[in-house]
């Protein structure tokens, strides 16, 4: 089976840290089929490299052949992305199919990627699978201007892959037939995220050995809730010496730094910025407790990585998080509640946790198993579509909401 993977969330030589989850997912799937990747990039992200604007860079640094074409939406107008992506990439996908006769199109993230892929799959008379990750259906599908097109796009797919049961229910609420929506859990690299000595990790990172450390890794964005975590740390100031390390960068960085100063927590809350992906296992291994204070989530891979590293998790009870956390491996708290978060951290820091037990709670979710799961879903979608076509002929073209 030949599969064309389609997403804006994928690393390239220009943006090596983008979409690493998709990279891991696609590599896992590619163990079971032939795969190539198309990574559409909006034109303004290319202004630093204007030579890339009118050509289609070809890359294979990730181990999978990838083309990185430009598309031309109107800035700050999300509703223009699908039309621009469809029109800008149609010829490229036709050429790709001549060079690499793909049997199926697999798009990840519902909007704009999945909806544009639905138009392209319709044009190519090609079966489609869409993977949803979280904010695409929890947040974007709630916007009245985007919801009809997201509903239409998801309904065109032979299968929709959701990373949690909670996301599956949201997709069904959008009008997709339940039998088409499959839960496929995330994988975790059990060799990279493994049981490591906490003290040795702290020595490598230059962290103190005599303090309790809470770690949080993620883009510094409102949806990720690091502001709630900073407030919770303010409530813990009178307890045992606890430090917080916030790994990541983003639009909230300056506001977080200002709030840390206002609370007088400069010596206890550290923002080292975005760190190389290869360092993340050390940061997690160095901590006593991992924290995920998000306001919304799908099925966050970092929880799996923390548990695989033998670290307990305190997390907001949102999205698919309750499907991963139980009394044996962490503590769930209400979102946007600094008092509850502070109490959850206090409890987690006071408990004795067994790293082997924590790792055992997720070890079965290997990337190899995840890749095999993706392959079986795609294979079933292709088989079903071929059976339908042989019985009734090609699917008639169907206009989307904006065409």
The SSE order reads EHEEEEEHEHEHHEHEHEHEHEHEHEEHHH
Alpha-carbon Rg, integer: 22 Å
Beta-strand content estimate: 15-25%
The figure for the number of domains is 2
Low-confidence runs: none
CATH class of the largest domain: Alpha Beta
Mean pLDDT: 92
Second rung of CATH, namely the architecture of the largest domain:
3-Layer(aba) Sandwich
Estimated structural class: alpha/beta
Description:
By secondary structure, the chain is of the alpha/beta class. The chain folds into two domains: 2-187 and 367-392, Rossmann fold (3-Layer(aba) Sandwich), CATH 3.40.50; 198-360, 3-Layer(aba) Sandwich (Rossmann fold). 39% of the residues lie in helices and 16% in strands. The protein is built from 14 helices and 16 strands. It has helices at residues 20-30, 81-99, 110-124, 135-138, 147-156, 165-173, 198-205, 226-235, 253-262, 280-286, 301-308, 338-350, 355-360, 367-392, and strands at residues 2-6, 34-38, 41-42, 58-59, 66-67, 70-71, 104-108, 128-132, 159-162, 181-183, 212-217, 242-247, 269-273, 289-292, 313-316, 330-333. The strands form three sheets. Strands 4-5-2-1-7-8-9-10 form an eight-stranded mixed beta sheet, with helices on both faces. The protein has a six-stranded parallel beta sheet with strand order 13-12-11-14-15-16, sandwiched between helices. β12 (242-247), α9 and β13 (269-273) form a beta-alpha-beta unit. The longest helix is centred in the last third of the chain and has 26 residues, at 367-392. The radius of gyration is 22 Å and the shape is globular. It starts with a strand and ends in an 11-residue tail after the last helix. The model has no long low-confidence stretch (mean pLDDT 92).
